[in-house]
Design goal:
Layout: H1 3-8, H2 13-18, H3 24-59, H4 64-122, H5 127-152
Helix pairs in contact: 3-4
Length: about 160
């Protein structure tokens, strides 16, 4: 069953905890920890690569065997560094996907709450009563306008002469 269908069927975070699944926050924290660990390993490997390159230069032509060994170690470290780069990229992608999924879940949940609130607000409203009320308001506005017009017209004292 997909996560979305579980959500609509009433799956809760308490149910997922009873199954042993981590919460999104826990998973995100662990992914960030892994990213930090891999970043530190990257820095370590980069310094090792620089050391091996310096060692190879130092041995140069004096000790070809030691220089070749240093270059081989450097190449191994570069391969490890490349693998870590790929792993970091995958973890970043997974973390971003998890963050987006968590955001979408929260948005969907809040939209559900809003829909329930709207239902509750509209529960006591009857369209016929609203129509009648709006019609009454319009009639009263018309009466008020007629009264206002009648009051604002001059009283006509002396305007009409009877000959």
């Amino acid at each position: 069953m997909s996560k979305i269908s579980k959500f609509f069927k009433g799956g809760s975070s308490a149910a997922s905890k009873s199954r042993g699944g981590p919460s999104p926050q826990e998973a995100l924290a662990r992914l960030r920890e892994t990213e930090e660990m891999l970043s530190k390993k990257q820095e370590y490997l980069e310094t090792r690569i620089e050391r091996e390159l310096a060692a190879a230069r130092q041995y140069g032509t004096k000790n070809k065997r030691a220089a070749l060994q240093a270059l081989k170690r450097k190449k191994r470290y570069e391969k490890q560094l490349s693998q870590i780069d790929g792993t970091l990229s995958t973890i970043e992608f997974q973390r971003e996907a998890l963050e987006n999924s968590h955001t979408n879940t929260e948005v969907l949940k809040n939209m559900g709450y809003a829909a329930q609130a709207m239902k509750k607000v509209h529960q006591n409203m009857d369209l016929n009563k609203i129509d009648d009320l709006m019609q009454d308001i319009t009639e009263q506005q018309d009466v008020a306008q007629e009264i206002s017009d009648a009051i604002s017209n001059r009283a006509g004292f002396g305007d009409e002469f009877d000959e």
